[in-house]
Design brief:
With 398 residues, this protein is mainly β. Helix content is 1%, strand content 41%. It is built from one helix and 26 strands. It has one helix spanning 28-31, and strands at 34-35, 41-48, 51-58, 65-69, 80-83, 89-95, 99-108, 111-121, 127-130, 140-145, 149-156, 163-169, 171-177, 184-190, 196-202, 208-211, 221-226, 232-237, 246-251, 269-276, 289-295, 298-304, 312-314, 326-327, 332-337, 345-350. The strands form seven sheets. The protein has a four-stranded antiparallel β-sheet, with no helix packed on it. It has a four-stranded antiparallel β-sheet with strand order 5-6-7-8, with no helix packed on it. A hairpin with a 3-residue loop joins strand 6 (89-95) and strand 7 (99-108). It is globular, with a radius of gyration of 20 Å. The two termini are 29 Å apart.
C-alpha cells in the first residue's frame, strides 16, 4: 500500500525532507493517492489549478471508479487526505498558519456531506501531518513534530474529537504500522542531533517507546515498509557505506543480519519501495515488493523478492500516480493511474515467478570496526527483535 509520509522542516538533515529517494518513502504530494490498508478505497486531491477538491476511489469492485467530493470552497494545495475503510475521507486543513482542522467527507445524494471533528494547534515551527492509514480502517492518526518532541494524535475514531495519545522525545518522521490491529507504530526518530533510529511506539501502553533498528551505533536506520504477515521489513540505512544510504531488508524478530542486495542499488536513480505483497505468512523471502524508480528520464516501476538476485523493471502506465499501488495476496500488483481518457484506472501486473533462494552471502552491515569488517569481532547487525517491545509472541528465527 502507499502511505502519507511525515514531512519535516528545513531544520532537519536534508535526508529527512519530503522528496522521494531522500528519506526513502513517497509523500502525500508525490504519491498523489493514499490507499486504505485493506485496499478497498483511496483518496486524492483532484482538479486543476485553484479548483481542487477531494476525490474518493473505490478499488474493490469489478471496475475502479471515482466519486468527487467537492465543497462550496475549493481545497488548498496543502490539504491532506486519508481514506477510511467505511468509504469516508478524512480531510486535514491548516488554518491561520497554526491550527489544523479535521473533518470527514462522504457522498450524500448529489452533494457532499461534511462532519466536523475538531482541531489541533501546531504553534511556531511545529508541523502536523497525517500518518498512513491505520490497519483497523476506522482510526486516523496525525503527528505533530516539534523542535524536541513529537506528539501523536488520534484525529478520527475517538469519542470526543482529536485526542493526544502519545508524546515521543525527539523529532520523528516516517510512520509504518507493524501489526494488523493498529497498536504498534514505527517512527524514525532523531534526538539531540544524533543519528536517525527507528523506534516502536505502543499505543496501548501510553506510547511506550522501544528500540526497533540499531544496525550500528552511528548509522541512520529508517524503516520504510513492514509486512505483518511475513515479518518482512524494508530498511534504508547508511550502515554498509557511511554517508550513503542503501536499501536493505530484514525480518521482524529474526536474529539474521539486515541484508543490502546489490540489485537494489542504482547509481543513477533513486529506488523507493512502496508496496509489499501481503498474506505470505512466515515466508518473507517470497514476498513481492514494488519499487518506484526515479531517474533523470522519468519514473518507472521495479519488482523484486528477497530471494531474488535481480530487480525486474517495467514501464508504468500513462498517468501513473507515481509511488501509489498495492499488491494482492495472490501476487498481482495494481497500479492506479489517471488520464484525460481514463480518470480512474488500475493496471494489473503479475508478480514474476518465484526465484530460487538467494545464498546467505548477501551484503550486510558487518563488523564492529566498520561495514566492511576490516578488524574487530563480528557484530550482529539486525533489527532489534520485537519481543523486547510488546508486539507479538513470535519467537526469534534461528
Amino acid at each position: 500500500m502507499t502511505a502519507c509520509a511525515i514531512e519535516t522542516t528545513a531544520e532537519d538533515d536534508d535526508r529527512d525532507g519530503e522528496h522521494p529517494g531522500r528519506d526513502g518513502r513517497p509523500t502525500a504530494c508525490t504519491a498523489g493517492l493514499t490507499i486504505t490498508a485493506n485496499g478497498a478505497y483511496a483518496a486524492r486531491l483532484a482538479g486543476v489549478g485553484d479548483a481542487l477538491y477531494a476525490e474518493r476511489w473505490t478499488l474493490d469492485g469489478p471496475e475502479p471508479y471515482a466519486v468527487p467530493l467537492p465543497l462550496d470552497q475549493p481545497e488548498e494545495p496543502g490539504t491532506q487526505l486519508l481514506p477510511l475503510a467505511d468509504g469516508r475521507v478524512l480531510v486535514a486543513r491548516r488554518v491561520d498558519g497554526r491550527r489544523n482542522t479535521f473533518s470527514l467527507l462522504y457522498p450524500t445524494g448529489p452533494g457532499t456531506g461534511e462532519l466536523l471533528l475538531g482541531s489541533v494547534e501546531a504553534p511556531g515551527s511545529e508541523r502536523l501531518v497525517l500518518l498512513p492509514p491505520s490497519p483497523d480502517g476506522s482510526c486516523a492518526y496525525a503527528l505533530c513534530v516539534g523542535p524536541e518532541t513529537s506528539t501523536l494524535w488520534l484525529v478520527a475514531g475517538g469519542a470526543f474529537g482529536p485526542e493526544q495519545v502519545a508524546e515521543v522525545l525527539g523529532r520523528c518522521s516516517g510512520g509504518v504500522w507493524l501489526d494488523r490491529t493498529g497498536r504498534m507504530l514505527a517512527l524514525d526518530r532523531r534526538q539531540a542531533g544524533g543519528p536517525v533510529k527507528a523506534v516502536a511506539v505502543d499505543l496501548e501502553r501510553g506510547g511506550e517507546v522501544t528500540p526497533l533498528l540499531q544496525i550500528t551505533e552511528d548509522s541512520d536506520d529508517r524503516l520504510l515498509l513492514a509486512d505483518p504477515d511475513s515479518g518482512l521489513l524494508l530498511i534504508r540505512s547508511d550502515a554498509p557505506s557511511p554517508g550513503h544510504d542503501r536499501l536493505g531488508w530484514g525480518v521482524l524478530g529474526s536474529l539474521l543480519p539486515v541484508r543490502f542486495p546489490e540489485c537494489l542499488r542504482l547509481d543513477d536513480a533513486a529506488v523507493t519501495p512502496f508496496a509489499v505483497q501481503p498474506g505470505q505468512v512466515l515466508m518473507p523471502e517470497t514476498c513481492a515488493v514494488a519499487l518506484r524508480i526515479d531517474a533523470a528520464g522519468g519514473s518507472w516501476v521495479g519488482t523484486w523478492q528477497p530471494a531474488a538476485r535481480r530487480m525486474d523493471h517495467l514501464a508504468a502506465p500513462a498517468g501513473w500516480l507515481a509511488g501509489a499501488g498495492l499488491w494482492t495476496p495472490e501476487g498481482v500488483l495494481r497500479l492506479p493511474y489517471a488520464t484525460a481518457g481514463a480518470p480512474c484506472g488500475l493496471m494489473d501486473v503479475e508478480a514474476p515467478p518465484e526465484p530460487s533462494p538467494e545464498p546467505p552471502a548477501v551484503a550486510s552491515a558487518g563488523t564492529a570496526a566498520g561495514p566492511e569488517g576490516a578488524a574487530g569481532e563480528p557484530r550482529v547487525c539486525r533489527p532489534v527483535p520485537l519481543q523486547q517491545a510488546p508486539l507479538t509472541d513470535r519467537k526469534p528465527a534461528g
